[in-house]
Queue: 2 jobs
Job 1
Amino acid sequence: MEMTAEALVETVERRTARVAVLGQGYIGLPLSLLLASSGYSVVGYDVNKSLVRRLERGDLPIEEKGLSDLLEEAGERYTPTGDPSALEESDVFIVAVPTPRSNGGADLSYVWSALREVAERARPPFGVVVESTLPPGAFRRMIDRSLGGAGLLGRDFLAAYCPERAMPGRLVRELVENPRVIGAYDGKSARMAELLYRSFSKGDITITTPEVAEVVKLVENTFRDVNIALANEVARICDALGVSAREVIEIANKHPRVNLLIPGIGVGGSCLTKDPVFLASSAEEAGYSPKVVESSRVLNEDMPFYALRIILDSLSRTGNGRKRVAVLGVTYKGGVGDHRESPVEPIVRGLLSRGVEVVVYDPRTEETFGGKRAESLEEALNGADLVLIGADHPEFKTREFRRELSRLPRGTVVFDGKWALDPREVEAMGLVYVSVGMIERLNSVLSRESERVQISSL
Ligand code: SAJ
């Protein structure tokens, strides 16, 4: 007997539905394992053959707390594959492929090809859930164009837009605990998606239209980007005024309605660097030209270059001819191995292009952005004129780390790109603490302690 859309929803409820997750990256992989651990039989499909081979060996390509336990729990219910014909047996398809930025807009080519694959392989009735970030209006357009031929939405196939909102470094926990938003045009599609996520999610689930869900996702990341931009602007204002931004922010945040974020060398990662751009470009197309969103992006994108200028200035004042910078951490933020859109990249490349020797130490990635790789912290610090904390990894918050740092010659400049260290502690080691919003530190050391050899020549 032929299955109906209602019966499909029932298989999702009973967890007998076979699920295929297209894209086994930062979101697709943890999601597959969560669903498999909840009882679904899950095919994890990816076009990257070497990634699939790794997964087949049980070798996880990303480090996230709880992920290896999930892999074990999922057991045989999780099957990674690079073979598209393996999709043919599935009832529900989840699209979790990237949507990179391209020419001021979104590159939807990976989502298109995943949906094409679904249209080709799926047998009605089937369900589709898109997790990839989409610009407003894209969900309807893409579903209509790619799946319209598969029949009628709500009868032959069900479709929902459920953007992921979990934070790298805390992926598993956030996928389980965060609230979810489901965008759907009909009740059956919404129910299918809700049952699927409810199998592992403890968060609140809100059902709305796909258009609202699209804007919600982009607004959330824009909120963060704009707030970081404000912190960065406060830092630059404080540098201009010669006061400590760290002190300003700390005191201002005691006000019950003020919560400034942490300024730094810039905003990286694949989400905050593109979602505000998607939002702004959709608004432009619709006839409104955003003010705050675009200028926040401009300021955040300038932060690595601002940091680079301070670093070059500090180096040029050392005057002894040696120019060697130890970069500790090159990922886009602490605690992750992801270096996409890292603000450390323009800094390293800018230093290299000016003939500065750059030695990189990062326990979380092999990437060096053209710098020389150091195998240990000790090796990186050896002979460094300036130390840049590029990512606030937990490894840089230990006592051993501070002990290594304290072995640096007196007067060595430590540029803390993430406000990760305690300035007083660094100065107590005889080092010079500098950061964005903390230039006054450098200046006050210069005027008070001009007898110090290296500092006096800064
Ligand atoms: N950063 C600062 N100052 C801060 C906080 C962060 O400069 O006070 C920098 C970080 O160093 C990093 C960048 O911002 O370079 C982004 O880091 P993040 O931790 O703020 O965010 P992401 O990109 O790792 O994850 C974001 C999250 N969105 C929100 O918090 C609104 C996450 O929940 C989303 O799921 C994710 O984007 C995504 O995939 O869209």
Job 2
Amino acid sequence: ERGRPDLIERALVIGDVASDSGLDSGTGELIALARTLGETVDVAVIGERESAAQAISLGADRVYLLGGEALVNGGSDAALQAFESVVNETRPGAVLLAKTDAGADLGPRLAARLGTALAQDCTSVGLDSDGNLTATRPVYGGNAVARVSFGTGQTGLAIVRGKVYEAPEADPSRTGEIIETSPEIDPARARVRSIRKVEQAATGIRLEDAAVVVSGGRGLGGPEPFEQLTELAGLLGGAVGASRAACDAGWIDHASQVGLTGKTITPELYITVGISGASQHMAGCSGSKNIVAINSDDSANIFKDSRYGVVGDWKAVLPAFLATVRELRND
Ligand code: FAD
């Protein structure tokens, strides 16, 4: 007898471990989502026991803690086999992955192996009145939203955007089951191997976690003005972002790109300088609480979404703004 017939029986979260150990914040967000879908929430993760305990404190009922040398030192092919074995064992109605490089790599391959459907870049996942899994996802460069349904009795795979669900507060008193397992990895099917890990040196707050983001676009005209943006972000305790045009021009690393094909951010304050506000850019920042735009063109699209807009040349506006912020900070 099931206690919650309005939910599917099980939802499985494919967990991710952050580089400094412990679960990635995205895994907590997926657990929060999974709790709204499945009566039982399972998490599968390649990692240490602490990660499993953390998953339980965040709302998992069962954690498949995957280990073994072939897996831990293996690449994505080995991980794929391991996660496939968990899906085959638990038969979830929904499998949730985060929209990360790992999720984008695993999701489609896992769906192909399972012979089931996958929805990419989901901004929401739910159940319809018949209990079928549904999802919404932006299409046509963020200009329209598609609602998709996975159909009855299917295992649906969804790759979910970051920051659309809020990770729950950890409750260390929660209990759950940890199933430690070393799935069999077929070496003939594990052709991609991890040779070495290179950590990108990062300073300051992660773009996705920052409460204040200052982004620059093509209107800046070159890489140098990003120094001013960096100073402003530093004074406001935030991070620097960019439009794709600025990244493509090589003025700043692609890791800083905000948008459809970049990062999704939801800061309290988003300041844009020389960004037109193309739909593909807005797809990554429209969840910002307050957008402040500096742009010389009063008909720029960014002004439609901004709470405060300054029509003017950034070369005049930005130094004055910076000077005022500096002064206020020194008080
Ligand atoms: P522009 O559109 O060229 O805008 C520059 C702005 O600067 C203008 O509005 C101009 O008025 C202003 N300006 C110029 N000089 C000054 C000055 N002196 N002072 C103040 N303002 C000035 N884009 C993203 O950002 N992120 C994505 O993830 C992304 N993904 C994409 C995915 C696809 C499939 C496609 C097709 C496109 C994608 N794009 C993305 C690109 C997007 O369509 C735009 O081309 C891009 O966002 C434009 O960047 P921009 O606003 O910096 O440049």
